[in-house]
Amino acid sequence: MKNSTVSVTSVALPARSHVTEMYASPNLADAYTIRLPDNASTDPELLARFMFSHQAAWVGKLMQLRDALVARFGLKTAKWLAESARSQSDKHIYIFRIYERTVDEIVIGEDDKHLDFRVSVFQETKDDTAGGERYLTVSTVVRCHNLLGRNYIRLITPFHQMVVRSSLRRAARLGWPTAS
């Protein structure tokens, strides 16, 4: 179902999400939520795969720029991660390794020498709202290992926020996969 009026909201990390307490003192912890249509799939992996496979073209260009810059520091590039993911697509979503799957959540991410991060795609029904509306929340937590990681995360945070918001909006506009 397509949704032409989409609202992505910044929220606290969901209390029931597995990433909430993953790192004792994360260098970045953010979450964005969007209301799902009633007929949308309840499978967080399917929702995550849909969202990551339908990103705007400018996100790809931004990743190419990132790759050109970080390769000089010996960090993993999106191109390297994509090649690695091709051989094990059932263990990856987009370029990110799957760390955990539950009925309501999938946790993906990557570890590198400068930082580790996890992204949660968490779907839940909020009983406190009229009609028990369903929401999808994308949360990110990052733990930096060194000065390079702390500087990197400071630099990319605004872009990260734009990408997450854009990805959620775009998936909603295209129409989330429906429940089978």
Provide key terms for this protein:
single chain; 180 residues; alpha+beta; seven-stranded antiparallel beta sheet; 4 helices; 27% strand
Binned strand content:
25-35%
* CATH fold description: Alpha-D-Glucose-1,6-Bisphosphate, Chain A, domain 4
Distance between the terminal alpha carbons, to the nearest Å?
13 Å
Please tell me the total number of domains.
1
Give the mean pLDDT. Answer: 89
Provide structural commentary.
- This is DUF2867 domain-containing protein.
- It comes from Caballeronia mineralivorans PML1(12).
- The structure is a single chain.
- This protein is of the alpha+beta class and 180 residues long.
- The protein has one domain (9-174): Alpha-D-Glucose-1,6-Bisphosphate, Chain A, domain 4 (2-Layer Sandwich).
- Helices cover 34% and strands 27% of the residues.
- The protein is built from 4 helices and 7 strands, in the order ββαααβββββα.
- It has helices at 44-53, 57-70, 78-86, 147-174; strands at residues 9-11, 28-36, 92-93, 96-101, 105-111, 115-125, 134-144.
- It has a 7-stranded antiparallel β-sheet with strand order 1-2-7-6-5-4-3, with helices on both faces.
- Strand 5 (105-111) and strand 6 (115-125) form a beta hairpin.
- The longest helix is centred in the C-terminal third of the chain and has 28 residues, at 147-174.
- It is globular, with a radius of gyration of 16 Å.
- The mean pLDDT is 89.
